Amino acid sequence: MKQLNISVGIIRNTQKEIFITQRDASSHMAGFWEFPGGKIESGETPEQAVIRELQEEVGIEAISLVLLDTLEHRFPDRIITLHFFMVEDWKGEPYGKEGQPKRWIAQSQLNEAEFPPANEAIVRALKNNQF
Ligand SMILES: Nc1nc2c([nH]c(=O)n2[C@@H]2O[C@H](COP(=O)(O)OP(=O)(O)OP(=O)(O)O)[C@@H](O)[C@H]2O)c(=O)[nH]1
Ligand SMILES: [Mg+2]
User: Fold this and answer.
1) How far apart are the C-alpha atoms of 75 and 98, rounded to whole Å?
2) Best exposed site among 3, 47, 78, 119 by fewest CB in 10 Å?
3) pTM, two decimal places
4) Per-residue confidence at 111, pLDDT binned at 50, 70, 90?
């Protein structure tokens, strides 16, 4: 069974909108929307990983990161541990650096059905203004 450790960034602006991107057609959870991020490499802390991933995937330099939650999810073929970081201060303007579709969405409009199942609890908490 594959065991993956993932760090993702919930990029939120002052209008309480969140930047999300769409997963590539060829990837795991293809077509779902996600918080940008990816696998923690060996020797990295979760925070170092999310800083690197946000640079690689959406072209920003994250300045302040707050760990909101760490969740484990069991897929039929893999177990993933997800670290969710709130990012409210960064340099640059996020974009789909790898060509992936992206959008800003009001936090209150988030829909857990658009995200992979592992995101359900955090998306619901965000939608209900718990963060
Ligand atoms: N980035 C991201 N991945 C998520 C989220 N929710 C979720 O279940 N995942 C899962 O976590 C894993 C993240 O891997 P990734 O494909 O982003 O990893 P990566 O950026 O290092 O990509 P690479 O392996 O293609 O270089 C995938 O299995 C993905 O389906 C999310 O909100 N954001
Ligand atoms: Mg990724």
Assistant:
1) 26
2) 3
3) 0.95
4) very high
